[in-house]
Amino acid sequence: MNKSEKYYHELMAHRHVSRRGLFRAFVSAAKHTTPEVLSTRLGHSLPPGAVPDAEFITQCTQCSQCIDVCPMGVLSRHEDGYPQLMIEYASCDGCGLCIAACSSDALRVQSRFDTGLRPVFCNSACVNPVRQCKQCVDVCPRQACFINESGRMSADNERCDGCGECVVQCPHNAVTLY
Question: How many CB atoms lie within 10 A of CB 51?
């Protein structure tokens, strides 16, 4: 089974995906775009539980064990050889398997799961001011997404754990993680 088959199998096993969401994933996959993510010293986002950048670079052996055990398929090998968190078609559910698989201690157990990423809403792409979509609000497991007083989408960064469910479920590609 190749990675894309494994990814879609796991996605369907763990999540309810609407026909619209599945179609959006197929259409988006054809674009081959990389989402803009939190920029680190490495230039890409790191897996949950990653130690600070300088320490991560010295400790990570680039063994790919964290990538191999990720049931959601959101970890992949970056061109520099280090693992990267790519929340594009599936969200990170915080299962901790990547942390448990890390033998170099570059990924550590967190007191509170957090990927370190936060949603940013593109007001020009979001249809909420025109038509009450609220998909991101409805699917957020931490109730961090909300409609602010001006009718625009916003996120409570204290409540948010960066899982990416809002990105995955937005039918208008109006959410990116930074």
Answer: 18
Contact 135, 170 (CB under 8 A): yes
pTM score of the predicted model = 0.73
pLDDT for the residue 36? 38
According to the model, what pLDDT value does residue 3 have?
A: 58
3-state SS string over 2-53?
A: CHHHHHHHHHHHHCCCCHHHHHHHHHHHHHCCCCCCCCCCCCCCCCCCECCH
Q: What is the rounded distance in angstroms from the CA atom of residue 8 to the CA atom of residue 112?
A: 28
Q: What are phi and psi of 162, to 5 degrees?
A: 75, 25
Question: CB-based contacts of 21: which residues, under 8 Å, 6+ apart?
Answer: 168, 169, 171
d(CA 155, CA 127): 16
